[in-house]
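Hey,

Quick one before I head out. I ran the complex with magnesium ion overnight. Inputs first:
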Amino acid sequence: MQAETLTAMDQALTRALIEGVAHRIIDHAAELTALDQAIGDGDHGVNMKRGFEAVLADLDTHAGKPLPEALKSVGMALVMKVGGASGPLYGTLFMTLGKTLPAEPGRDDVASSLAAAIDAVKARGKSDVGQKTMLDVLAPVQAALAAGRDPAAAAIEAAEATVPMKALRGRASFLGDRSIGHMDPGARSSALMVATITDVIGRRA
Ligand code: ADP
Ligand code: MG
């Protein structure tokens, strides 16, 4: 296959990934907001929608770059537009993926890059797995990738598993035991992103 064809295919994939994730999050904004109304301040859907609308507004710029650069520029857009606790954390996640992924990553590359990105989110959020946050989806997804299991199934299951957890970080932690019994909004948005990425890649294969 010609090198140019490969490049064009990769750019099409980068575009499909960014567009797919943005639309899935925007389509689920009301659900994310409802989850955040239960245990936070009810802005997670609005925050994420604002961020991904800004990403779509600059889609040609983001998607015109090689995948690692595209991830960095999406991350910067999220930092600037999402706000709240989740904006800088998702920004850190995407920017670290961009810094650590090779241009044409395989599954192992994605697993090790996601491990680095999770560490960066933990450092930024002074948080860890088990505290009812997005990390409780991202870490099981990373483990599934590393073990050759389906990351989308792991993500959906892990988001469900935040329901009985007690929040120890973020606004939901102010509720103490009253945070138990609700899915963490950031866990749900992370699961939506992972499910979309696996859908897009699966459709292409
Ligand atoms: P805010 O809490 O400022 O209103 P959002 O509602 O947009 O911000 O995002 C809330 C989500 O961010 C939570 O559901 C949780 O998953 C995630 N989160 C909050 N604080 C942290 C943290 N310290 N580490 C990891 N994730 C966090
Ligand atoms: Mg909130």
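Residues 3-204 form a domain with the Serine Threonine Protein Phosphatase 5, Tetratricopeptide repeat fold (CATH 1.25.40.340).

Talk tomorrow,
K.
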